[in-house]
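Would you mind giving me a polypeptide sequence along with per-residue structure tokens?
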Amino acid sequence: MYSSLKGLTGGGGTSSIRRSFPVAPGESIEKDDVVSIFDNMLYRNAEMPVDALPRFSPDVLYLDSEEYGKAFYFMGGNSYLYIGASQKVISIYRVETGAGGMSVSAVKKLPIYGVEGINEFQFKPLSEEMGILCYLESNTSLWTLLTIRWNDSGLQLGEPARLELYSGSLPAIESLSDSKFLLVWHCTKAAPWRLKASVCNIGPNDKISLEGDATEIDAAANLYSGFAFSRLSAGMFAASYWVKESDTKGSLVTRVVTWNGERLAVGADKSVIVTAGSWQIELKHWVLSPVHFILSIKLDTALTFHPITLREAANIPVNGGSTASNVTDAYYDAVKISEKRFVTAVSNKATGTLVLTLFDTTDGNNKQITSKTLLTTVKSSYNKLTLTAIGQSLFVLAFSHEPEPGYAYTQAILFKMAPDQNLIDDLNVKEQLINIWDRGAEAYGFLFCPHAATGFIAAGQGRLKLFRCGWSPARFISSGVGEFHSATGDHNSLITRSMASLALSNGYVVVAYRERDTWHGKLSIFQPVEDGYKPVQSHTFSYSHVDNLSIVELAPGVIALLYKQRITPAYDSKQLNTGSSFEEFKLLTGSITDTGLGGKTTTSLNLSEFYMKSQILKLGNGYLLHVGVNSSFSVTARVIRFLINESGVTFKPLDQVEYLDYQRMNASAIRIGTSLAAIHTDSKMIVVEMDGNGLLCKLADKYFELVDRTTRGLIADGRSGFVQVTTHNVNGELLELTPYRFSNNKLFQYGDTRSVNRKTLDVKVGVESGGKAVVFYQARWDSGRSPSLSDPHQTMFLSLLDIDSDAEDQHYPFPCSEGTLPVFLPLGDYRYFCMGADPNGNQIYMTAYSDDEKLSYGKPFLTPQGIACSNGASGEVVEVAIRGIAEVDVPLRAGSAYYNGRDGKLSLYPAGGKVGLAVSGNELFIE
């Protein structure tokens, strides 16, 4: 049916139109690839997967958001074992840390067969390359045990063994040898209740089995299930448990268990401590040496720490002088300082106190050396204290704090405690106390692991985050690069502009942001390179809580960053206090080069009154416009003169203060001309002009007259006007644009309000780019499920909307996840700097490319423009068939249309644009 068309195109018998182009940096072209030409360079026209785009923060790693952290263990080198579980699956991750940040090098999955997830769970490392995973699914009595091994090749799981232990509480596991371990559990099969121990063998395929009959450690009618069991030395173990004797009394028992390589033996002698109380809450061991450990018991009446010492001859446990506290509702943890010393942290729910206490046990008794009340305002409906040793005498204490209902944070205190130290330093809140997890977090859901003796990794639901610590010369806990998020982690209604970004005239991009968890102020700098951008620095410019961020370029490569910060960070109810006694505005200036931020200076912005919200714009040469809402809820504008000299930048606010609106909570400004700015308040649109001497004049204002609509923002149109972006409150929040023009000192609407015909949920107004208004929105479906950014599908869209109504709008899916705060900066030549997120939540950055028909992220994946006629590496010249007949080596189906596949190859499926029509088995006609 089809015959060859060779010789019928190009006029004088030429079979195709061909042109040659250099292959773009980082690209590799193969013959028959579908290609695009961008900036006169050749690209394979393939889509870059979202998970291949570079991550913004190497210090944050998002995993499955449905998984709760169950275990976290340092395997050695740069490797960590992290285990998370949802109601459906247990995920075992091998996480690597290196110069490129945290990444997953291997993952294994275990199914959960029930419908209610895991009831009890633990992971116990037995050696440098192996550990035991032990868990009990809900509504079952069978415990599952299996080995996890790690080596250079990844992770290996053993064959699961399922054991009927007749126990609903967590067993204890301790190593005996390379192929044996000790399993101890509380058994309720028959009265009286028993504490049992059994040797377990690790056989072929790493299958676990019980060896012989179990050894009974003790039996009693009311032997509580929460026991403590620890390895003191090779073949020597200690078991502690509580037996209730009456409603007001019980016995705390400790016995020694030994293993001689062949059999288990339980010591005849035991330590018995009579206690008051009607029920046991918690029982723990802290091993200080092979013959000495601390036994803590939390009863309904008291929290007590008992020093237990083994008599050297007979290994008989002896109780020394205990330390008791009548704190009936305490949360606590302890950590070993040396073989004779330990530190306790106790939080009293009733009083809000958080106390560190140092004990010495040299003579077998608990001797209090010193005690320090760190905080007096810790509030939480439920808490868990975690003490983590992170280096030489450095420790981090993590806890939950809920200053008011619905606002729970996980916080951390850094402190130093040397073995010979007898004092606890006073807490410097600004340096040693931070939030490490934002609103909605509870400390009992978190795991902590030391990192390289310089910090720690916190693991919460679906997220790992690396924190670095230091003590000398400066004390700090820092989140490194960190992350930013649409939820500020605080009272969102009180936080304004938690992120600001700017593309500079020297090609660099700067992003300033309020770090999601710590609320610190950070500045990230990106340098242009051949194939996009690369980060060159992340600078923490404030260790306090920041917001109200805005950036301007004073001169090529010279920036000014305005931000508001708390004078003293507050991590309790005082964090809601506002005003000049609690907050201050700062201006940071510096030069942006290939080494990052240089010549940094930070000065206070001293205005005549305090502003709750502030913003700066550059107007003319040497002037800034400050727009803000003061403490009287008045919107004002003021000119600030700046001067750049060899010593830095100086700022001088001019005397004139122009009052623009009253009793308003919000104000934002955009520049619409060299000396013109448009200001949007809750009720008005205002235009102000600055003359050559810095004198400010309000030229026009207009009350909103759009009925049943919410104004989302203003976008300059590049012609001394702007568009008002609104959503229709009644008609499904339909997106709408209304154009305004300023002329002859008048502000007037110069075109009809036009509907974009997109129903929206959350709208974020951006900038102007080549006659387009940039708007981000979350789609509202007309039918079916309600959209949610927490779902893995894309529901955030990037829209390039024509400011004039005579052209077509463009809508593109944007890489996002729940809470994505997008960045979109026009760079010129149809390129844009973007920041979004992958489906898990990891922030990513990329260059976006456009050809007025399509937009792609990371590399051009645009309208196909031809077929490569040969192979070519970066920098080499490749000939491209653009029109007519292209001879290809891949077999074609004559008569079929071929499209651009996502991999840059010819495809029968219309994933991308149409390339041409196959006229024979190896000829493609390109129209």
Observations:
- The mean pLDDT is 89.
- The longest strand covers residues 754-769.
